Amino acid sequence: MNIHTQLEDTLENIKKASNLFLGYPISKDFDYTPLFEFLKFPINNVGDPFINSTYKVQTHDMEREVIEFFADLFRANPEDYWGYITNGGSESNLYGLYIARELYPKAMVYYSESTHYSVKKNIHLLNIPGIVIRSQENGEIDYEDLQNTLQYNRHKPAIILSNFGTTMTEAKDDISKIKGILRKLAIQDHYIHCDGALSGTYGAFLNEKIPFDIADGADSISISGHKFIGSPIPSGVVITKRSLRDRVSKGVSYIGSLDTTITGSRNGHSVLFLWYAIKNMGVDGLKARYNHSLEIAEYCKTKLNAIGINAWSNQGAITVVLPKTSDAIKNKWQLATEGDVTHLICMPNVNKQQIDAFIEDLIIEKEAETVLV
Q: What is the largest CA-CA distance in the chain?
């Protein structure tokens, strides 16, 4: 197979796969055609985005605008915020935990059993001890178990990883309840990182707001750029306080900047995509995307329940949870499955026609099973 044939085959396979996925939080309704010219250049956002380095082929100015946008969305102190564009949510979580460890080297990490798998890996990389907290049936952290576990270890500083949208059920931990537990137990040395990979982007738009952001008590918060917003390259955003960043920053004369990020060299093109997206969408555009997704999720639940499938969702979620589907349905629609649960995620690109096609497949399968019986 020559190079052109392989490229054509790969493109065709990607197109087919892209048309049939409902199980993963990836938006694909984007058009970054005006940015294609930038692919001719080695854009590297090395160093701290708020400090000009000696490497000039970068998009630091746009990165600062993206950080400012999300710092405002997450109600950070305008006099004390900082952040950067990461390679994805896993790196963003790693950064939050890294700052927490530097602040409290002898701390214990607490995270629910519904937490993304990357967190366990991150605390292993950082060599921090951790304790898994039970989850409630809907995927939200069990606050009673958290309190009991914290009380047993109250002599140690606490690092708590809260979730604003768990992987399978999009459950959201209430930071105000977590802060209340910490106050009740008089644990003054603590750090809260919020993993808002998917839901954090639209958390401010929930009809019944669930506390999750900087103003609510988070010390850092992370989201993924390629999920709700959409990007051809995976990316993430981490927002924290500049005063906390200063605890880990080191000067690097080689680049004429501070070493404040995990990777050093960073993708300057993903910054362009996020910048372009938020400039076009703005807050109102993000809210409209969320309202569309919420409408489709409600439509999906109604249709599933109408054919006898028990489908449900958490408050304000665009994720629809249902009993485990057959392998044929799971593989065709690329559905994420864990244990006896499958989910659909109604991203902004998902429409009623796709939901109808999915429902039709379930009906056909059900009828075929009835005939066999």
A: 74
Arithmetic mean of pLDDT, 151-169: 96
pLDDT, mean over the chain: 93
Q: What is the pLDDT of residues 186-213, one digit of tens each?
A: 999 999 999 999 999 999 999 999 999 9
Contact criterion met (CB below 8 Å) for 181 and 147? yes
Contact indicator for 88, 227 with CB cutoff of 8 Å: no
Q: Is the Cβ–Cβ distance between 86 and 262 less than 8 Å?
A: yes
Asked if 47 contacts 258 with a C-beta cutoff of 8 angstroms, the reply is yes
Which residues pair with residue 180 across a beta bridge?
Answer: none
Distance of CA 277 to CAs 31, 67, 213, 219, 283, Å?
A: 9, 13, 22, 26, 11
CA–CA distances in Å: residue 110 to residues 8, 58, 149, 204, 271: 47, 37, 9, 25, 32
C-alpha–C-alpha distance, residues 215 and 173, integer Å: 15
Q: How many of the other CB atoms lie within 10 Å of CB of 24? A: 14
pLDDT at 250: 59
How far is Cα 233 from Cα 231, in angstroms, rounded to an integer?
5
Distance CA 87, CA 71 (A): 18
* Strands 236-240, 341-345: pairing kind: unpaired
pLDDT at 272 exceeding the cut of 80: yes
Give tens-digit pLDDT for 17-58. Answer: 888 889 999 999 999 999 999 999 999 998 899 988 788 999
